[in-house]
Fold Homoserine dehydrogenase.
Amino acid sequence: MTTVVTSPALDAQAERSTALRVALLGCGTVGSEVARLLIGQAHDLQARVGRPLELVGIAVRRAGRDRAGIDPALFTTDAPALVTRDDVDLVIEVIGGIEPARSLILAALRHGKSVVTANKALLAEDGGTLFAAAEQAGVDLYFEAAVAGAIPIIRPLRESLVGDEITSVIGIVNGTTNFILDKMDSEGAGFAETLAEAQELGYAEADPTADVEAFDAAAKAAILASLAFHTRVTAGDVYREGITEVSTTDIASAREMGSVVKLLAICQLSSGDDGREQSVSVRVHPAMIPRSHPLAGVGGAYNAVFVESRSAGRLMFYGPGAGGGPTASAVLGDLVTVARNRVRGASGPGESTYAARPISPIGSVITRYHLSLEVADVAGVLAQIAQCFAEHGVSIQTVRQQGRAADAQLVIVTHRASDADLSATVDDLRDLDAVRAVTSVMRVEGE
Amino acid sequence: MTTVVTSPALDAQAERSTALRVALLGCGTVGSEVARLLIGQAHDLQARVGRPLELVGIAVRRAGRDRAGIDPALFTTDAPALVTRDDVDLVIEVIGGIEPARSLILAALRHGKSVVTANKALLAEDGGTLFAAAEQAGVDLYFEAAVAGAIPIIRPLRESLVGDEITSVIGIVNGTTNFILDKMDSEGAGFAETLAEAQELGYAEADPTADVEAFDAAAKAAILASLAFHTRVTAGDVYREGITEVSTTDIASAREMGSVVKLLAICQLSSGDDGREQSVSVRVHPAMIPRSHPLAGVGGAYNAVFVESRSAGRLMFYGPGAGGGPTASAVLGDLVTVARNRVRGASGPGESTYAARPISPIGSVITRYHLSLEVADVAGVLAQIAQCFAEHGVSIQTVRQQGRAADAQLVIVTHRASDADLSATVDDLRDLDAVRAVTSVMRVEGE
């Protein structure tokens, strides 16, 4: 192949002194930090892109608010007009949520603007539509900030590991729930109390649903699984359990096993060794992991993503999962990349869904389980309980008794079993007269 | 800016079924794994690139050796002819060393081939020449495998964090020395004995100089510093101390402080707060770090790189630092990226040295120190020793005495001081009659 001199390269030369013009959608914690850095680090950004980056407009819901350090003339409430302006080259979306973000991003892409977004919810719900619009317009859609804040994980999955076969991605991708679980572990406090503390400290929102019910983590899991396995996974494909049911007893029980409870986003490729098509399972739920696992030491509001692949082996990426600074860092990294691409007349990788793998239902997922049962009388009931597990082919690894006689509690850890078999076992356990309650069922991962 | 339809995109469409042709230089542990994966994963690689990748030749020193699973017809001993063949698009260099690797890479670049290399020594010695040749030819030079094996660190530094200001990069980037130090820590064995064990297990080479004298780590430090700080740093700019002088006493002493000894590659940007130009310091040496530091838990032959930046905060990247599989994963990730760029008529980021920062001499580096001294009589000599530190403005944090009278040992940990002041202090200590020997001086980092 001969070397091709492309016309965009010549254009670029002619336009070297012309700024690339940036529109910003949203000016909250992340947006205002992005604006501040775009203005404050203009010299470095220009050197890295090869052309100046000029912030030409910021779309906000309400104009007139004082935003320190940012020229008031930049603000507009007319976002649709801003993203389609002829003189805008690049659009940053940090509004979040589905609408109006989706309409604005689609309008920008269709008008030939490259887009950088931090919007995990939108990507997980309708990423396919956005990627198709970017592909059709020949522009970039970058989203490093959508998962795990400043931790570079999107680019490693899309590019660094693209020559490898990734077999699993396990992440702590929600800082709020990690902060809460970490506090419950270190202070022995209950969920409600710890959530209230996290809200006071600003680590949890007034309405904590998206975090504690794991909607946020599920959206990120969908994005990670799509990239890792070259297939489309949406938020609706992700099995999801939040942390509201995690009790101090669960955490104490994990501790006795040398484990900790973490909210994990788990994306796995089935082995497919027996010639069947490889399927993908994606789930987000609290789980016990051994303290020796690299993810166990990820404390406070930090995030980490643990990746296993055929050739590279086990990799981990660790860092702050949220916050204005870290998220702005990821947004600006993407902005420089799409701006460089624009200068070179190039575009980055698009959506890769060629593998089109089926999604495994949660029932077929195989893992280990930790169960707590309140039982009437241990001596009499253990045989019945063991029989119940055996009937569903679920093998028991350990049984531990806590308390005695009338208020006895049994803690059972199983060997690997399918979720369906375990669920059927639990249903039958609940029907036993001697079992007063199945107080907790939690998966055991990372071994 | 309007959307530009580039002619390469049209070329690419016409050539969609045509393979991109790959030449491989070297067929040792890494090369043979790259060849195996290129052939075995052809279907996936084609889907990810958009065109097939075809391995058309492998340059080796001696032909005729049986290399299981690879077509003997692919082998050639004429590497210069292979890299300049008209029908070769992409060249992978995994020979290592300076020559003939440099001449071959330059010939390939000048003939319009994009190059993927794992050659840290060459990049650290003469990367500038290679990058200039790539830039001039409008082709790519990628090198993810050159630092920390499969751990994605080059791309995160070149792209993900390119909108941020990185202030320090601290890495465990040599698996052999980490394996040795880890064994010395866990088994209490000496350096020579542990090196011999590492050699038997295949973790250290017969001639371990490049690893234990830290030449390998210094080359990687130069590459990391160049990328992090947008300036050119060569191996010669790196201050280097190996691990051959690390004693069991040092390791025991670190343990008493709640620390471990690691060979660290440390790249730092000076604060420049007082209006001076920001300079860069790059050094590789054994150091004590607290066990609570994320790098302290990196055991065995694993690598990790810890990055701090203004906006993103503290990030860590962890994984296997060497080996055929991990290195091949990094090489193939780069190969897919440069192949995609080729298909799109684009190229990735080139060398970024716009900041052109001066290199600080080691004497101006400020850190803390751990010293072991054999002294004649503690009661009598402590005042003299303290005076010696005070004269050079080095402040003592702790003094600990081990043993008594004639065979007493003093362990001193300082507050932060410049390397020059500390060295002058050590010189004066050696002149004191009561100081029999300064048995060890080690830096204390990560606090």
User: Anything to note?
Assistant: The first helix of chain A runs from residue 7 to 14.
